[in-house]
Please model this.
Amino acid sequence: MSKILVLHGPNLNLLGMREPEIYGRETLDDINEMLEKQAAAQGVEVEFLQSNHEGVLVDAIQQAPRNGVAFIILNAAAFTHYSIAIRDAIAAIEVPVIEVHISNVHTREEFRHHSVIAPVVMGQILGFGIDSYFGAMAVALKKIKALY
Ligand code: DQA
Model:
């Protein structure tokens, strides 16, 4: 059975109390719970991982094909803007990745405008608050149904 891996990068463990005017009031657990329900309604399993450590995310991306992951939903947070290691890990696997951001990074500081992972992901969903995650999940579920 195919599954979806949801990866959250640094500082996303602080959602709910971190700059709520930008990131909202929901906690990471709230978001994961809603994503889980969204996938379960389609009979698809989801795994979640949050890490503040680049290498942990690289390991998870590398291991995804071996772990039966059909799709990755990734909010790489600050790593989006400079982690060549995460970019290379995505490029090394055939599992499609959807890049997600809660905020519209293009309306924020200049350093957030560039994503080093953008060229190696299937697509980006950003700027819709936590609905960016649910949009990405809807796409992943639809694509998985088309594959299996
Ligand atoms: C973020 C945007 C990034 O620029 C930032 O470093 C984050 C969160 C978002 O979801 O809007 O930590 O990825």
Remarks:
- Residues 11, 75, 77-78, 80, 101-103, 105, 112 surround DQA (CB under 6 Å).
